[in-house]
Specification:
It is built from 10 helices and 8 strands. With about 350 residues, the chain is an alpha+beta fold. It folds into 2 domains: about 170 residues, Chloramphenicol Acetyltransferase, CATH 3.30.559; about 130 residues, 2-Layer Sandwich (Chloramphenicol Acetyltransferase), CATH 3.30.559.30.
């Protein structure tokens, strides 16, 4: 008998995506540079305490025998294994190459499904006074915000243990939030909110096609690639001045720029982009777990539209979409043959 909890809408969407991409596992990963004298024993104890405090960090996704519906299964205790590596004898180039290999190896693990743990932690010594803590979490139990929460709490826990203090227990657990999200989507009282998304008629919006985009190949798999670009301080100051002059947030300004670029490249005046949201409520700000989701934002551009008018449209449409974000579900979008929105 497997005792489990309902998946959140975010987890369910990820599970559905995973069924069409059997070769891949989604994950969230970060590295933390620790400089100065490190008490490794205290760090390991602090790590175990963080995992003990938050059920989602000990959660795997399982399909009980005879069923096709996955559930969250929470381990009673954390069986945390911390890998230790020593790169002190290598030069800077060799250390960077070895560290990258360690991170890639962690990403190749089957995370959070069946009997596989949802986490991988490693501590790598670069020198006596410098260490890298690598944290890799299953995407079923973590988003980008979770990584930041994890690192903040680990730091607090480490300091508290050094002082002989104990942190207050967390106010919420992820399984309770997941249940609340599911009930919210199913509640008769939220029919008006669901009507809002139905009125968006997402299936009528043409899929955005870029002239140089790569077509899907027979090779499937989650293989993210990155391009790092540096921005000069002068450019950042100029952008900040623009935000102030138009009296808009940085996110609204940059989203309007993004829409303009897509319109110019594609020649399509009507399309959809996805914006990330989640942790709307203050109580969720320090709660780890997959709470981020993407919701669709319709973009309509035209030749005579001024940039200030586009900014106002973007501000208003973003405000509206975020107001109804809790009631958007990917399964409803899929039923209307709308474009797919990934986390």
């Amino acid at each position: 008998m497997i005792e489990g909890f309902r998946l959140s809408p975010q987890q369910m969407h990820l599970w559905s995506s995973r069924q069409t991409d059997h070769a891949s596992d989604y994950y969230a990963q970060c590295t933390v540079l620790i400089e100065g004298t490190l008490d490794v024993e205290t760090l390991e104890a602090a790590l175990r305490e963080v995992f003990a405090r938050h059920e989602i960090l000990r959660t795997t996704i399982v399909c009980p025998p005879g069923t096709t519906a996955p559930v969250q299964v929470i381990a009673a205790s954390a069986t945390l294994s911390i890998e230790h590596h020593d790169l002190c004898g290598l030069n800077a180039s060799e250390r960077a190459e070895a560290l990258e290999a360690l991170l890639q190896a962690a990403c190749a693990l089957p995370f959070g499904r069946g009997n596989h743990p949802p986490t991988h932690i490693s501590l790598t010594a670069l020198s006596a006074e410098s260490h890298i803590l690598a944290i890799t979490l299953s995407a079923f139990c973590a988003d980008i915000a979770t990584l930041a929460i994890f690192v903040r709490e680990l730091s607090l826990q480490y300091s508290a243990r050094r002082r002989g203090e104990t942190l207050a227990p967390p106010a919420l657990q992820y399984a309770d939030i997941a249940q609340w999200n599911c009930e919210l989507l199913e509640s008769p009282e939220t029919s008006a909110a669901r009507d809002y998304w139905r009125r968006q008629n997402l299936s009528s919006v043409p899929r955005l096609n870029l002239p140089f985009e790569c077509h899907a190949s027979s090779v499937v798999g989650f293989n993210p690639q990155f391009v790092s670009l540096g921005l000069e301080a002068g450019l950042m100051a100029a952008l900040a001045a623009q935000f102030r002059s138009y009296n808009v947030s940085a996110s609204v300004y940059l989203l309007a720029c993004w829409q303009t670029l897509l319109w110019r490249l594609s020649g399509q005046p009507h399309f959809i982009v996805a914006i990330d949201c989640g942790r709307t409520y203050e109580e969720l700000r320090e709660t780890p777990g997959l709470l981020t989701k993407s919701v669709p934002l319709q973009c309509r551009l035209e030749e005579r539209l001024s940039f200030s008018e586009l900014l106002e449209r973007t501000r208003e449409s973003t405000r509206e979409v975020l107001e109804w974000q809790e009631y958007f579900a990917w399964d409803s979008a899929a039923q209307s043959n709308a474009p797919e929105f990934r986390i």
